[in-house]
Amino acid sequence: MRPSVILHSFGYFAQGALATVAVSLAAIAIGFAIGALVCMARLSRQALIVRLGAIYVSVFRGVPLLVQLLFIYYFLAKFGVDVPALAAAIGGLACSSAAFQSEILRGALNAVPRGQGEAAVALGFRSVDIWRRVLLPQALRISVPPLINEFILLLKASSLVSVVGIAELTRVSMNVASSTYRPLEAYVGGGLFYLAINLCLAGFGALAERRLSRAGVR
Amino acid sequence: MSFDVLWRYAPSLASGFGVTVFCWGAGGALGVVLGFLIALGFRAGAAPLRWALRVFVEVFRGTPFLMQLFLLYAGGPAIGLRLSATQAGILGLGVYSSSYFAEIFRAGFAAVPQGQVEAAMSVGMTRFDTLKRVILPSALVAALPPIVNTLIVLSKETVVLSIITVPELMYQAQTMAAETFTAFEAIFALAVFYWLLVEVVSRLGRRLELMATRFLSHEAL
Amino acid sequence: MGAPVIEIRDVKKAFGAHAVLRGVDLDVAKSEVVCVIGPSGSGKSTLLRCVNFLESYDSGSIRIEGKLIGYEETQGGPRRPMSTRKLREMRREIGMVFQHFNLWPHMSALGNVAEPLERVRGLSAAEAGERGRAMLKRVGLADKAEAYPGRLSGGQQQRVAIARALAMQPRLMLFDEPTSALDPELVGEVLEVMRNLAGDGMTMLIVTHEMGFAAHVATRIAFIDGGRVIDVGEPRKVLHESREPRVRQFLQTYHDRNAF
Fold it and tell me: How far C116 CA lies from chain A's nearest CA (Å)?
């Protein structure tokens, strides 16, 4: 194996890595918004809405991501909607991530000790204030570690959007492999870049956890 | 999509499903065994071995499955590893899942209360017997739910194999779609099929989990 | 003497098939300190939580300063649950201190005390802060205003919780086993605060295991077992001269340990 091949294509890999991170960031942000809605649906008082939320989670967690992505791609093609592949890819990742994020949020809300809400009720707080000032701040703090984990998973899942032509890190690796006829170096190189991204994230995650415990949430 | 299209392709779809199940089963089994060995290596191995294993686990958990497949299938020949697509698929699933199973087993071992091990040592049990009769039963009971979950997740990963042309279900469905210009319907049917499959397997998995946990805890007693 | 601050009449409550309260009668007059004692599972905590309707009761009535809580006053016919708004208004006047403090960990001690003042009493941030500091001073924690609950001992947390309830200037205060979750050496500081409160004339209904406290601070003690008040009266009468066998049996272990 010749490491020089990797160094030679360093620029391409770096661009691909950037694209991977950008796509994942967009997807997790949109996924959070959708996931929050789905979570609210699951906590609704209307049985139908609760059911719809549960179905969303079941479908987007049960159907493999690749199938979801291709489905959106063909769905848009069939109905003649001209959406750029990038938007479809991010949308697909977001919808899938939303299912997992809604479960994270639901778990976090359940993890807030009951007594805190009770104290607010006993003091005469209005419902909206109990949510805004007591439950949500706590739930969001509890969600941060699993959300960071979800982001790491999303980064890896983003490699699948290479099949719809998005020029992220996996596709770049494929291009390098075919243009240099050295697949081993190409994929090792790509893999190294993925590991580098993960390393940065792990550091960020540890920092976030330390900051959160300092705020006295333990 | 007309019914006779489905009928014509039924054999290839069925074969595709068979390949999916085969790859999932073989890959999962490989992963569990490998993961278990790695976890044992963490416990009992010398420092250099533990370090090497840690690198292995971090690499295969930190990179996308698709990249790992490409590496094995396309990059393999460069180190003398000439695999067919299906072989690469099974090996890929096995190695990828082993990194997750290794962590699960490691956590399972850690979950065994230290007091139980101390009790065994204080009556003079050998390390091997302690492992076999005290640690393993508890560790396996603790590890079972995450193992079942990981296997279910792994079943969904099998579709990625279609990208390196393993003739599993998704590959066959896409072939049918391309040949009959029914891409949308085919993918839609595929989505529904996988959704139902995962739902059913998840429920079965939970029931199996309960049965196996009861069995294992009886064994331990 | 006037109407009792808390009037509990024939209150019954069941959780499914399990009857927890089987007809409880109890009054608490203004500035009285009533301690409720009894074995676990006797229903004492449930009774307390019914007083501010954190738990609903199935039949009977609980009146706070003459006003029925939890249900609308109806002349005959089935009872309607009280509107959320009215319930909230009534709860503002009732202070509650929980066994596990229930402080909000993402707010400082001062934050915990000031938050209800701002949200519920509608005070400005400045006024709430001022009153909050005064309350913390009253419970002896003026220097801990900026500290977060995670950095406070159990006793300090409970005192902050008392300050939080007290800051609302409630008409009465409910205490649900306020020292049961504390390490023994921290119990004293909380009981001290409660004793001072009693001395200031606060109407208090306290579920507790601290017999010494009950013996010296309570105006009356009520013994509850099996969902009913078995005996009630002055501390001396209930603790030392009770004619009820269940009361004597329960108190035997405390007597043996010279607890009071």
Answer: 7
Residue A3's pLDDT band, with cuts at 50, 70 and 90, is confident
Verify whether the Cβ–Cβ distance C116 to A134 is below 8 Å: no
Confidence (pLDDT) at B195? 92
Residue C35 pairs with which residues in a beta bridge? C206, C221
Please tell me the pTM assigned to this model: 0.83
- Test mutation, A13, A70, A156, chain B, max B CBs within 10 A: A70
The parent domain of residue B215 ranges over 9-220
Could you say which residues of chain C have pLDDT below 70? 1, 77, 259-260
Best C82, C92, C106, C108 residue to mutate vs chain A (most A CBs within 10 Å)? C106
Interface-testing mutation among A123, A132, A135, A210, with chain C (most C C-beta atoms within 10 A): A123
pLDDT in tens, A41-65: 999 889 999 999 999 999 999 999 9
- What is residue A208's predicted lDDT score, i.e. its pLDDT? 81
Q: What is the pLDDT of residues A128-140, one digit of tens each?
A: 999 999 999 999 9
Evaluate whether residue B140 is within a structural domain: yes
Are C149 and C105 in contact, with CB atoms under 8 Å apart?
Answer: yes
Say if B37 falls within a structural domain: yes
Total domains in chain B come to 1
pLDDT digits (tens, 9 = 90+) for A102-158: 999 999 999 999 999 999 999 999 999 999 999 999 999 899 889 988 999 999 999
Choose among B27, B162, B96: nearest CA to A64. Answer: B162
Q: Return the amino acid letter for C128.
A: A
* pLDDT score of A215: 56
In CATH terms, A3-214 corresponds, of 3.40.50.300, 1.10.3720.10, 3.30.1360.120, 3.40.50.720, to: 1.10.3720.10
Neighbours of chain B (3+ CB pairs under 8 A): A
Whether C105 and A218 lie within 8 Å, measured CB to CB: yes
Could you give the ipTM of this predicted complex? 0.88
How many distinct helices (H) and strands (E) make up chain A? 10, 0
B98-124 burial: b if 16+ Cβ within 10 Å, else e: bbbbbbbbbebbeebeeeebeebeeee
Measure in Å the smallest separation between the Cα of A48 and chain C Cα atoms: 25
pLDDT > 70? residue B219: no
Cβ of A156 within 8 Å of Cβ of B65? The answer is yes
Tokens 């068979």 sit on residue = B18
Q: Does A77 touch chain B (CB under 8 A)?
A: yes
Residue A185 near residue A3, CB atoms below 8 Å: yes
pLDDT at A31 over 60: yes
Domain boundaries, chain A: 3-214
C151 touches chain A (CB under 8 A): yes
Please report, for the domain that includes residue B99, its CATH number: 1.10.3720.10
Tokens of A88: 């479809």
Other beta carbons within 10 Å of A217 = 15
What integer pLDDT is reported at residue A218 of this predicted model?
A: 40
- Alpha-carbon torsion C109, C113, C114, C116, what sign? positive
Taking residues B205-210, report their average pLDDT. 84
